[in-house]
Amino acid sequence: MKLHSCYLTGRRRHTCASKMTWFVVAAVAVCVLVPSSHCASATVDWCYHNSSCNDATWSTIAAPFCNGTRQSPINIVSASATGNPNLTAFTFEKYDDRSVLDKIENTGNTVKVAIKTGVKVSGGDLSESYDSLQFHLHWGNGASVPGSEHTVDGKHYPMELHIVNSKSSLNRNTTLAVADSTGLAALGFFIEVMSGNATGQPASWKKLTSYLSKIPLSGNSAKIELAISLDDLLEGVDRTKYYRYLGSLTTPSCNEAVVWTVFKDPIRVSKDLIDLFSTTLRISNNTSSPLMVNVFRNVQSAQPVTTQHSGCGSITASMTSYFLGLALSFMLARSWN
Ligand SMILES: *[C@@H]1O[C@H](CO)[C@@H](O)[C@H](O)[C@H]1NC(C)=O
Ligand SMILES: *[C@@H]1O[C@H](CO)[C@@H](O)[C@H](O)[C@H]1NC(C)=O
Ligand SMILES: *[C@@H]1O[C@H](CO)[C@@H](O)[C@H](O)[C@H]1NC(C)=O
Ligand SMILES: *[C@@H]1O[C@H](CO)[C@@H](O)[C@H](O)[C@H]1NC(C)=O
Ligand SMILES: *[C@@H]1O[C@H](CO)[C@@H](O)[C@H](O)[C@H]1NC(C)=O
Ligand SMILES: *[C@@H]1O[C@H](CO)[C@@H](O)[C@H](O)[C@H]1NC(C)=O
Ligand SMILES: *[C@@H]1O[C@H](CO)[C@@H](O)[C@H](O)[C@H]1NC(C)=O
Ligand SMILES: [Zn+2]
């Protein structure tokens, strides 16, 4: 998950180092928590592609948060997720509105879509209503080299969609949100290749990906004019089934301010559309710069994960079907005698 504080403050600059562009993000968030003397140089150079600034270095180059103790993403071990009946359904406001997507942007390390005001999520054991600010994606290299951030039982999906939400009471002030241990709520959706030989499906993803060719270079952006709702993009996902844990932003400065919800069902998108991400977008403002591939952070230390049903719940369910099966065979056996 990425939260570009610079996007909200309008501060962003790029520096180029030979063939490699480093993304220099104004680390406004850090300044909230450390003495102002450190803030004059509070920028962090990070990247995915170069061993001198990739995720293996973040705990050093983007301390203190990136070397914290509740970092994201994680591998979710489904059998270790404990049951919590408080994880009820969410209420989504304006997720069915086909005019809420605002601007789509190539940031140099993801493609991000800004969401207009008035779009909200609540319920699901969140402490209050959260405003949906933006969504962005993580991917590998085509449908065959997976690049989700979270993994489930060690499995990476081809892509992962993150909807970033901040506590409504904080009025979209991300400086305040990243300083609050539950200031942000991230909704994570896995993206899986649609089975069969379908192309250009679903229609909502065909519309969304039609903008990628308009934003090939870092810094390019386009206004979304086509009618696309968040519900359209999340088609096929049962949003009552999810994992929950407390974690962080998955890019520097990795603030530990995120209530994570990772949905169990993937969104299914045809292979041709998934492949567009790794073949259309470049990491800097230069047609000869590398394509944007493998834009995800590796998994971090495990965290306690909860879900709707405990491991015991599924044992109970399988025992129930076992006994139903026994009873049925008993009845059949009787009817044959
Ligand atoms: C990585 O970044 C360093 C420092 O800017 C640069 O010298 C090196 O050439 C880069 N490596 C690649 C593979 O781009
Ligand atoms: C993170 O790094 C800082 C500075 O290098 C250090 O003081 C702190 O103990 C580290 N925290 C963890 C959890 O390793
Ligand atoms: C569920 O919510 C209630 C009321 O807030 C709380 O007391 C309880 O500890 C919660 N249960 C779990 C498993 O978190
Ligand atoms: C966010 O809140 C902080 C602390 O109250 C304040 O200093 C800052 O100006 C606010 N930022 C915006 C963009 O309103
Ligand atoms: C997909 O296309 C291949 C090659 O054209 C074909 O052999 C296969 O049966 C198709 N599969 C489906 C599910 O349509
Ligand atoms: C790309 O870089 C050139 C030269 O620095 C600049 O003129 C142009 O505005 C940039 N384009 C974008 C979309 O950032
Ligand atoms: C664009 O890329 C080429 C080849 O890598 C390089 O020589 C040139 O300096 C780059 N231009 C900019 C503005 O980064
Ligand atoms: Zn993300």
Number of domains: 1
Assigned CATH architecture: Roll
User: What is the helical fraction, as a range of percent?
Assistant: 10-25%
The tally of strands reads 18
Which segments are poorly predicted (pLDDT under 50) over 5 or more consecutive residues?
4-42, 312-326
CATH-defined fold name: Carbonic Anhydrase II
Number of helices: 8
Helix-strand string: HEEHEHEEEEEEEEEHEHEHEEEHEH
Radius of gyration: 21 Å
* Distinct small molecules: 2-acetamido-2-deoxy-beta-D-glucopyranose, zinc ion
The rounded distance between the terminal residues' Cα atoms is 63 Å
**Biggest β-sheet description:** 13 strands, mixed
Average the pLDDT over all residues and give the rounded result: 85
Structural class of the helices, strands and pairings? Answer: alpha+beta
Which class in CATH terms? Alpha Beta
- Our estimate of the beta-strand percent is 25-35%
What form results from the Cα inertia axes?
A: globular
CATH superfamily: Alpha carbonic anhydrase
Please provide a written account of the structure.
- The chain is an alpha+beta fold and 337 residues long.
- It has one domain (25-336): Carbonic Anhydrase II, CATH 3.10.200.10.
- Helices cover 20% and strands 27% of the residues.
- It contains eight helices and 18 strands.
- The strands form three sheets. Strands 5, 6, 7, 8, 9, 10, 12, 13, 14, 15, 16, 17 and 18 form a 13-stranded mixed sheet that branches.
- The longest helix is centred in the C-terminal third of the chain and has 26 residues, at 311-336.
- It is globular, with a radius of gyration of 21 Å.
- 42% of the residues are buried.
- The chain binds 2-acetamido-2-deoxy-beta-D-glucopyranose (7 copies) and zinc ion.
- One 2-acetamido-2-deoxy-beta-D-glucopyranose binds at residues 217, 219-220, 285.
